[in-house]
Every structure is written in C-alpha cells, then in structure tokens.
Amino acid sequence: MLDESTKQQVKQYFERIKNPVTIILYSGEHEKREELVSFLNDIESLSSMISIQHSNDVIDGLRFTILTNNKPTGIYFSGIPMGHEFTSFILAILQSGGNPIKLEEGILSAVSKLKGEFQFETFISLDCHNCPEVVQTLNSFALVNPNISHNMIDGAMYPNLVKEKNIQGVPAVYLNGERFLSGKAEASIIFDKLLELYSIPEEVESNDSITNPSEIYDVTVIGGGPSGVTAAVYSARKGLKTLVVADRIGGQVKDTMGIENIISIPYTTGPELTHVLADQLEKNQIKKKENVRVQKIESDKIKIIHLNTGEKILSKTIILSTGAKWRELNVPGEKEFVGKGVAYCPHCDGPFFKDKDVAVIGGGNSGVEAALDLSGIVKSVTLIEFGDKLNADKVLLDKVSNSPNIKTLVKAQTTEIQTGSDKVTGLTYKDRSTEQIATIPLDGVFVQIGLVPNSGFVKDLVETNRFGEILVDEKCKTNVEGIFACGDVTNTPYKQIIIAMGEGAKAAISAFEYLLHAA
C-alpha cells in the first residue's frame, strides 16, 4: 500500500525505535478492513521492533491500538491513518518505542499528575491540516498518564457516527462522551481547557518557582510567527541570550495554504514556511519553550514571565509578537454551533458541506479565497460583505465573476445564525440600504472577517488602542521600559508576512540598543 520511497523513509525513522512496539488489531468487519491490514503489514515489514497481533475482541474492523513492552499506551486509531494523519501514526509508534515526546516538560508533568479517567475521541478528516496537532497532543497525553486514552476516528469511515453526533467540522474532540472542543487547537489550548474543567493537582498548583533562578535572558520573544522568529534570530546574531516562548512555531502562517507575496520566494505554503522558521531557530541555537502560553508579566528592571504551567522566566527585555486570531461575528448562534455548521477554516471543514448551501462572511481576500475554494465542493456559496463592495484583489474578483455558484451580497450585516435542534439552518442579515431583514436557508457558515490581536494577557501592562493592538513607536517600543512589540499584535498597518518580518528585525535591534544603554 505504501510506495517504495515512503517505505524507505519510514524505515530510516524506525531505526530510532528502542522498545518493542506491538500493534493490536481488533476483529470486526468493514469494507476497508483488507486495506487496513495491508497498510499495517507494510508498517510491520519496516522494523523488527514492530509486530502485529490480532485480537478476538470484535469492534468494527478498523480499530487498532499500540502497546510498548506489552503494556497499553492508551493510543487507538479507528481508520487508516494516511493523509495528514500518517505523521501522527508514525510519531505514535516512535514515541511509544521510546523516542522523546516533543511537548514542554511543564505541560507533560502537569498532565501526568491528573487524577480520574479521561477517554478522548478525536474525529478527523485525512485532508485536515489542523487535525494532526490535536491528535498528536492527545496521543502524547496518553503516553504520560495511564488514566488517559485517545482514539483517532476518521470521520469518512464512520459516516453514521458522524451523522449521529452531527459533526460538521474537524477536529471534533470528545472527552468521556461529551464535546470537549472543536476546530484547531494548539497543545497549550488543550492543556488550558483540561485544567479548566478538572481540578488541578496540588503539585501543579504549587509549581510556582522560577524555571532556573540563575538563568536570566537578555531577550525573551513571546510568539513564534514570522515577526517573533525574525526578532529571535536578529537578537541571537547580536550575541544576546535569547528565548522564544510560543504556543506554536509559525503562528497564523501555519494555517495559510498558498503564499505568493514574499519577495524572492515565488511560492510557498504555511507549513513549508513554518518548517523554515523552525529550522532557522535551530541553526542559530535559540532556546525555545513551545506549546505553552504566557499568563501574565511582572515588569521591573528584570521582567518575570508567568507561564500556564506554573513556571516563571526571568528576562531583561521582552519582545511581544503574539500575532492575531480569527475575528468572531459575536452574533447569536455562532459560538454555540462551532463545529455544527459554523466554521473558520474552509480547507478543513469544506468537505463536510459537499453539495450543500453555505455562506462566507467577509469580502476581503480571505473571504473571497474561501468562497472560491468552497465553490468546487458545495452546491452554492453566498458571499456576504458588510461594506459597499468586495475588497479583494482584482484577480480574485474576476474568478468570482466566473463562478456560477457564487452569489454576492454587499451592504449586508449578519445579525444571527439560524439553528435547528443540532445544526445550522440559515443566516439572518439586515440590508443596510433598505434596513430590511432577510433570512437565507443554509447548511453552513464560514466566518472570514479578519483578525483580532492576541494582546489580552498584557492589556493591563502595555498601552493598546480600541482594537486591542499594542501601541508602538517607530522603533517598536511600547510605553513600558524594556518591552517591545512587533507584527500583527501591534498597531503597525498592513498585516503582511514580509512587514511582520521587518518589524521583528526592528524590535530586536531596538532591544539590543536598549540593553547597550542599560549596561
């Protein structure tokens, strides 16, 4: 089932396996059973450390689990983990076989101490580029805590179960049978959500010590997108002791599929650019704490950064580069039906709306691109814009004009997402020209109305404008001594990757100058 090139590559990875790994395949019937068996046989043939055993326990024909040293790992797969989930499967084998788990020690330590029973299920699509991060995070949680189990479920293989749960977006995560979260989520978000719902062990609550009291960084960059990585690289190349703290390297860029406007790079993708950013951090030997979030900052001559793991970090300067997140409509029906007809990622959730009627809210580049992407899958797209006209690039508008199943509404203010018992049924809007209210019957709504700066954790520390953007001067200085900011989290106009990178370089040079004069 795997081609020879893939087999050779995976075989090299499997040379790292230290402990015996057993794949237990449960009994049962499914039309894809033979395909799964062929896939697992290919995997078994690539390492003497991997073996397959057949269980007499009857489930559904596509369920299997992983053991290491004949002990359960808590990791299950229901489906054939190809596509974007192939990496999740290979990582699960490698980590079960003794390779290190690539999550922050603080998170793993806290998760390992959680008491109770945690049975996670994640419904995924093999085409979803946001799903693997969730699957891999929960697999890691299972590996460090025997009370946690996680089952990846390919929604395409279980259409009746998807219909029963009315899942219209992925990843869709359930914990002990109840909906836990929907949509993309970094490890830090999953960790926060888990601790929010369940009592924090006393050992974790009291983890309030400095990570390393003797270690004071010259520069701590908070955020791992283009501006943050640039700031870190420029700081390190100035000889400054630099740390990057980020929930994920890449930031919003990681979710961008096609990038064609970075000068000297004719075309790349978000995942490819993210890999390059991570590689530059490694080559410059820059320390990083990934998958964690900053809760607050104490500002003095030496700043104290508090993490969601309970750890503290000391730094002489801070560069804030936390970027932005999708803006929400904040209308009735939106938050309640995320994953049940309301979505923010057309690439991930579009396939769930095949041959159905959907709306895209937002007439900028993001909204128009989403409408065009969806038009090849769905029955019809209604593109809704609050302003007087669509504000996308002409090349995109020309494509919309030539797409017979895209209808455009301008001067339309969305007022409510209509819902039935467990799904989206329509959208209500006000025609701003006539003040008349109208409702469109729909199966799904994709929100693409711009970004909100991720500045909430410092809103009481640095000055922001009414949009929540951190105010900076021409040298990226905030109103607080020794704290700088760059990228989409600031009031710098034009939110573009290339501009964010330039601002990151500027912030680093400003921090360097500050440290020179402070010495």
TrEMBL record:
Required cofactor(s)? FAD
Q: Which UniProt keywords apply?
A: Disulfide bond, FAD, Flavoprotein, NAD, NADP, Oxidoreductase, Redox-active center
Q: What are the Thioredoxin-like fold domain coordinates in residue numbering?
A: 124-189
Limits of the FAD/NAD(P)-binding domain? 217-504
Q: Give residues annotated as binding FAD.
A: 218-233, 478-488
Tell me which Gene3D superfamilies the record gives: 3.40.30.80, FAD/NAD(P)-binding domain (3.50.50.60)
Q: State the protein's name.
A: Alkyl hydroperoxide reductase subunit F
